[in-house]
Amino acid sequence: MEKINWKKKMEEQLRRSGFTLEVENMSNIRLTEIHASSSPLISYPLRIRLYERMGWLMCTVDSPTLDRNVDHPLFERMVTAVFERIVRHLYNGYGFHVLTFIGDTGNYIAPKDSETGEVVRLVAHLWNDRSYIHLDTFEEYPALYVTPPWAHQAYAIESTDDEWVIYSGRSGRPSTDYRANGVELKPHRLADGELFFPVDRISKDKGTLALAEWLRLERREVEDFMMSFMQTIQKFDPSFGFAWGGTETFFHGVPVEPYAQVLRLENRKRRYRVMNNTEKRLFAVSDDANECLKEVSQTLRTITLPERRVSALGQLVMGIWQQFEPDEETYIQEVAYRDISKFQMEEKIGHALANQQPIRWIDKNHPHQHVIEYAHLRITFPNRPPGLVTVEPADSGYERGAL
Asked: What is the superkingdom listed in this entry's lineage (predicted)?
């Protein structure tokens, strides 16, 4: 019986969708490249590459004429509508598990009721908290790659006849931001020439539930360390890593900017690292999470704190202003207290920062001043520094007016 060629069937379906094709078969590298003119369904000319990589039948789609700033959403909808139908036909009609990658938007398409579609769905749901996997990459021939926002390495998944093989990136993510609760400030993409090594194997006999459990554990172990790291740092500075309206503070009062990584090693172990970004040097490193955090605590205890640290009020207000210098007097010219002492105010705000309490904005759109409620205090300050800051209990009876 003649073996059905999945690439030929893909060409056939593209022609049926109204495309005029120019096909180039590069048998030496087992690649078929198709240049497809626009059709009634997609108004962009496409470049389509068909190849096999890491056990997946790959179809990558991009357009040389796409303006990513203008056409991005429309192009995404057009390509998804056409190729979802094509890959579903190839799966239902011939049993081909084709994985499509839209190079211009970074999203994957797979037959939803196939094994490939189930793996893609699990990774997207358990690692990306959304219904699709997005990949920023300069890789010319990608396979099933994932760059989770909570991780410090890229991952790749290979499909063999009897198991899934999980790979991790060799280079590691260049972290220059702080993370808590899985929040990322710097987007992660697959680096040019990223190298991978295998870190685990999961038998397909155990089903996709075994893969799902591995994905959950991998994420949980990384996020647990990151949360413990944040708690360790916040013992020395309550405001570290706490965001006010999308602004992430630096390490006020202590002359370090620590950040952490959890890296996979080739011997299936992990390496926990904390770096000092200010001095570009290693802060703590260990193959054990607890040992790494102990080393961080010991290092921070040896740091000589400046005599004039930024106050709790300064950390709050300067964080909103996005000012990170330690000389808060330059920005906060005067503080007016009403019905509360300076000591009481600092205790209340410091406790609220340590517990990462959210800010409640009373007036954010005033042309000259902001008014917030924080730690049961009403705080008024100019939109931009420098200026006067007024602090009073939230239930104060004073008449409130503009500065």
From this structure: Bacteria
Please state, in angstroms and rounded to a whole number, the distance separating the CA atoms of residues 117 and 139: 22
235: helix, coil or strand? coil
Cβ-based burial of 38 (10 A; exposed 0-12, middle 13-18, buried ≥19): middle
What is the tens place of the pLDDT at every residue in 342-382?
A: 999 988 998 888 777 888 888 888 888 999 999 999 999 99
Query: Cβ(115)–Cβ(128) under 8 Å?
Result: no
| pTM for the predicted model, two decimal places | 0.78
Q: Is 148 helix (H, G, I), strand (E, B) or coil?
A: coil
For residue 208, give the H/E element and its range: helix 208-234
Cβ 390 vs Cβ 381: under 8 Å: yes
- Maximal C-alpha separation, the chain: 90
Tell me the pLDDT tens digit for each residue of 131-149.
678 888 878 899 999 988 8
3-state secondary structure of 199: strand
Q: How many helices, marked H, and strands, marked E, lie in the chain?
A: 7, 20
Residues in the chain: 403
Residue labelled with tokens 């931001």? 177
CB within 8 A of 222, min separation 6: which ones? 150, 151, 152, 262
Contact (Cβ atoms closer than 8 angstroms) between residue 98 and residue 114: no
Q: Do the beta carbons of residue 258 and residue 177 sit within 8 Å?
A: no
* Nearest C-alpha neighbor of 7 from the set 102, 86, 64: 86
Count the neighbouring beta carbons within 10 Å of the beta carbon of residue 28: 6
Give the up-direction half-sphere exposure of residue 391: CA atoms within 13 A in the CB hemisphere: 24
